[in-house]
Known about the structure:
- With 241 residues, the protein is an alpha/beta fold.
- The protein has helices at 29-44, 61-66, 71-95, 117-125, 143-154, 187-193, 200-208, 223-228, and strands at 9-14, 48-53, 100-104, 113-114, 129-133, 159-163, 168-169, 181-182, 184-186, 213-217, 235-238.
- The mean pLDDT is 94.
Amino acid sequence: MNxxxxxxxxxxxxxxxxxxxxxxxxxxxxxxxxxxxxxxxIHEMGIExxxxxxxxxxxxxxxxxxxxxDRPTADYMGMLGTVMNALLLMDAxxxxxxxxxxxxxxxxxxxxxPYIRRRAIRHLEKGRxxxxxxxxxxxxxxxxxxAALRAVDIGAEVVxxxxxxxxxxxKDPQTHPDAVRFDHLTYIDALNLRLGVMDSTAISxxxxxxxxxxxxxxxxxxxLRDALLGKKVGTLVNSGD
Length: 241
């Protein structure tokens, strides 16, 4: 692998909240700049990188639905929010010196390319980071599912789920000091225990395609690099073979 790394092509899943300020809502450009530095680190390791980002910092569709909003409308609003976050990330990553493209599942030619699988792969082969916006382009599917789908589509070797904690725990470690971290889970464990790794559709898609999911603390200065070098970091979800 390139520069001793374990992976050649990776899909990074970021939550929208990763781009928010202290309140967990809205956009904080300094957060985008911090993410861009992490992305540059991955890029400099010779790894081809795709990114899927959520929109929880801009719009939470569940709240709209609870107030009687039509589910597809709420979901399409969320897709538009992911495009805003994708453009923010593109700008930050390019200012960090890495060529970047945004592709969207909902066509909007004035601001981004439409998602075309072969074009996305070509961008990756040329060393460009590709950010996939607008989820799957369909309501009723989360950005977790979009991440799994895009990862399978582009031939990524792992989905890295960026977290604020060191992996997957049996309960929230931020409120329960006695929470226990899992070093490894099978896909079935992750589904049955409902640990919030990713939603069930995303996990099932990864399971069907034998695509590992690695949950780690994205903000730990060593964790991401160590994981890409093949060291044991965070929680690995796979078939257990």
